[in-house]
Amino acid sequence: MDLLENYKKAWGNQPEETNKLSALEIYKLAQSKSSSIVKWIFIIGILEFVVLNSLYFFVDMEEAYNEYKKIGLENFIHYSQVLAYVIIFYYLVLFYLNYQKISTSDSTRVLMKKIIKTRKTVRNYVLFNLSYMAITMIIVMVAEINLKIEELNTKQILLIILLTLVITIIGLGILWLFYQLLYGILLKKLNRNYKELAKLNNID
Amino acid sequence: MQKDLEDKFLSDFEKNQNIAHKICRIYTTNNDAHKDLFQEITIQLWKNYPKFRGDSKFSTWMYRVALNTAISLYRKSTRTVKTQDISDFAYKIKSTDYDDTEELQLKALYKAIHQLNDIDKALIFLYLEDKPYKEISETLGISSVNARVKMNRAKEKLKNILNP
């Protein structure tokens, strides 16, 4: 007989849990706060929307706008911000809808897929925000150079380009690493289990 | 949730709570973690109960939600170190009225299961609970064929740990 059959018998005969809960205890337990991964993704996702959007409060918008006007970018900034808000709103709705679809009554694989999809919505939002910042910075740089093109020599122009690129790459790189770390820690276990499950679905 | 639905849930869960305790035993190795996971399972069952339409048995649905919670929602890593002490879960097993050999087998079994990865734990658990392949594949969301293949591998791993 299979070795495991004996163990299976022992498993079947194992005594019931000694610390059983009463209906009232279960009720109380059910009212406590969840600390699940999904809840954390939701909280962090919302925080990202709030934090990234409130960055604008720390910038003197009027001064920035005057600067944009000076280099002739006020229209570009205006329209691109409108567009950015439309896209942010789209991501926020998508994020919420994906979050709502997560249900533990689904099969393990479907549930994991939905969690990963929700997390990817936030990742795409962050990527969009970072690229928006990078593009704006580069366009402002080009406009600044264009304005002072007669006063600057080639060496100075190259220096400005290099500096802007380095600052942009470092700044966005740090932010990106931070996100990778945050979600890496949060989703390490989930990703590992998903890979394990996906692996076994590709056996045929 | 409506009052009668709440009562129905509480009575169903109270009767079937041993399923959740067993899952906690295989996915955690100390009392605090057991309680922690049990709490999260309770919350998830409660939250999802209004969506449970009763097209399957309560216990079948409970296996799914509880395993999902342990595998995908529970934040702490359930992977355990290989030198884990047997006494960690011995407190849970009453030794009276229980055959000695079987008690030792059970302890060895839990110790071996703790060394498996989360997905293999689920497969072995469903095998030990005598679930048909159809239910196993539906719970995990993989095809029946894959469930069989993966189950055989998980069993092999378990056998190698139990009988090196």
UniProtKB/TrEMBL annotation, chain A:
Residue ranges crossing the lipid bilayer per the database entry: 37-59, 79-99, 122-145, 157-179
Keywords associated with the record: Membrane, Transmembrane, Transmembrane helix
Protein origin, superkingdom: Bacteria
The protein's name: Beta-carotene 15,15'-monooxygenase
Taxon lineage: Bacteria, Pseudomonadati, Bacteroidota, Flavobacteriia, Flavobacteriales
UniProtKB/TrEMBL annotation, chain B:
Domain of life where this protein originates: Bacteria
GO molecular function: DNA binding; sigma factor activity
GO biological process terms on file: DNA-templated transcription initiation
Keywords linked to the UniProt accession: Sigma factor, Transcription, Transcription regulation
Listed transmembrane segments: none
Gene3D superfamilies with a match to the protein in the record: 1.10.1740.10, Winged helix-like DNA-binding domain superfamily/Winged helix DNA-binding domain
InterPro entries (alphabetical): RNA_pol_sigma-70-like, RNA_pol_sigma-70_dom, RNA_pol_sigma70_r2, RNA_pol_sigma70_r4_t2, RNA_pol_sigma_r2, RNA_pol_sigma_r3/r4-like, WH-like_DNA-bd_sf
Residue ranges occupied by any RNA polymerase sigma-70 region domain in the UniProt entry: 13-80
Occurrences of domain RNA polymerase sigma factor 70 region 4 type (ranges): 107-158
A Pfam match: Sigma70_r4_2
Family: Belongs to the sigma-70 factor family. ECF subfamily.
Protein known as: RNA polymerase sigma factor
Lineage, uppermost ranks: Bacteria, Pseudomonadati, Bacteroidota, Flavobacteriia, Flavobacteriales
